[in-house]
Specification:
The protein contains ten helices and eleven strands. It starts with 10 loop residues before the first helix and ends with a helix. The protein folds into two domains: 157 residues, no CATH class; 177 residues, no CATH class. By secondary structure, the protein is of the alpha+beta class. The chain binds protoporphyrin IX containing FE (HEM). The site of protoporphyrin IX containing FE has 29 residues, from strand 7, helix 8, strand 10 and helix 9.
Length: 444
Amino acid sequence: MTGCPFASRRGFLAGGLAAGLAGVARVASAGDAPAPAEAAAKGITAASQGPGREQSVPFRGVRQAGILTPLQSHTYFAAFDLVATRQADVAALLARWTDAAERMARGEAARPPEPDLAKPGTDSGEAAGLAPSRLSVTFGFGPGLFERDGHDRYGLAHRRPEALVDLPLFNGDQLQESRTGGDLSVQACADDPQVAFHAVRQLARIADGVASLRWVQTGFSANFAADDTPRNLMGFRDGTQNPLSRRPLESVGGVVQPATKDAVWVGEDGPAWMRDGSYLVVRRIRVALEHWDGTEVEFQEQVIGRHKVSGAPLGGKSEFDPLDLDAVDADGNPVIPETAHVRLASAAANNGADMLRRGYSYNDGLSMVAERWPPWRQGLEYDAGLLFVCYQRDPREAFIPVFEQMSKLDMLNQYVTHTGGGLFACPGGAREGGFVGQGLFEAA
Ligand code: HEM
C-alpha cells in the first residue's frame, strides 16, 4: 500500500485531501510576535480559548516558539538523557527533531510515511485527524550536553554558557533524582493534550539510540475566557504580573532598568548561538492542597499578597493595580506582608530581577506524603500543584537570586514542596534550512 494515511493528520480522515487540508491550518502568531501588553501578561488571546485549535504556530523563526506564544491549554514537558558518544550524532538528532517539530506544528505527521505496512509506522498515529492546536515545541540544552562529572562528553565543554550554571540546592528542596535535570529538554504545548503528548512521543522515538527519556510532566491550564487570568489549583489568578505587562517603572517600586535590558531574551552578552534564546527554569512544585483548603481565605490572601476573587494586590481594587510595597495599615504594619509571595517575587524587591512565567497546573493523582509543616499530616494526599516554568535572559540575575530569598522567607513555603526540575539553555530559533542549536555545533 502507498500513501500512508498519517502523512497528514487531517489526511487520516480526508484521504486524498491530505495535503490541501494540512495547508488549511491558519497561522497564529510567530513565536516572537508580541501580543498586546495586557493580554500577553495573562498569556491570553482569543486564540487561547479552545477555537485556537485550527491554528498553527510556525516552528521556525528568529526565536523559538512556545516562549512568547500565548499560553496553550496543555503541556507535555520532557527531559532527555543523551546516550550517544559522538557529537555528530547529537547534531544529527537535533536536525531530525527540527524537521519533525516543524511538520507537527503544521498539523502533519512527524515523519514522511512508511508505505510498507510490514514495517512499524513512522508516526504512531494518535494525532491523525486532529488540528495543529497551536502546537509549539521548545528545545533546551542542559549542563550535561556540555560536561558530565567533569567529562567533556562531546567536545562542547568550552562552549558551555556561563549562565548555564548548576542550579544550587535551595532551602526546603526535596528534588527527586528521577524528576530532576536532563541533557536536553522538550516542552510541547498545545490546545489539545493528545497533540502535545503525540509530539513528545514521536520525538522520543526519533531519538532512539541517541537520547532517552529521563522524566516527563504533563500540565494543564484552566479553560479561561480571553479577558480573564487563569486560576491555579490554589484558586488564585496566576500570571497577572509578567514582564510584558510591566507598569510604568515608578509603579513597580521605582526600580529603573537600563533601556536595553530585556528580561527574556539573550542579547549581545551571550554566546552567538544563544542570541535571541532564553534560559528555562522548570520546577515541579507539589502543593499541599488539603492543608491549603483548610486555611482561612483571609490568611490565604496574606500568603499570596493578593485578593483571591479579584486578583487585586492587597490594598488595591482591581487586578492590574500596581503593588504598593510601601503601604502600611493604621498600626504601621505593611499592607502586603513582608513574607507575602508577590512581595518577595516582585522585581521591585529584587533589584529589578524579572522573568517570564509560563507555568501549568499538574495533577498526578495521590501519593504518600509526610507534610513538612504543621499539622504534619502523613498519608495519601493529592500529588498536584504547579509545573512552574519561567524564561529569562540570565538565571543568575533572575530565578536564582529571587528564589534564594523566597525559599527562606515566603509564607507559601508552608504549602509547597519542590520535587523536581532543571535549568536549560534554549537557543534562538531554527532558521530556514537549519536546525535548532546549529550555531553551537558549527562553532565547536
Ligand atoms: C506553587 C508555587 C507557586 C504558586 C502557587 C504561585 C502563585 C503566584 C500567584 C497567585 C501570583 C500572583 C499573581 C501573578 O502576578 O501572577 C504569583 C506571582 C509571582 N510569582 Fe509565583 N507562585 C509559585 C511559585 C513561584 C516561584 C517558584 C517563583 C520564582 C521565583 C514565582 C515567581 C513569581 C513572580 C515573579 C510573580 C510576580 C510578582 C509581582 O511582580 O507581582 N512564583 N505567583
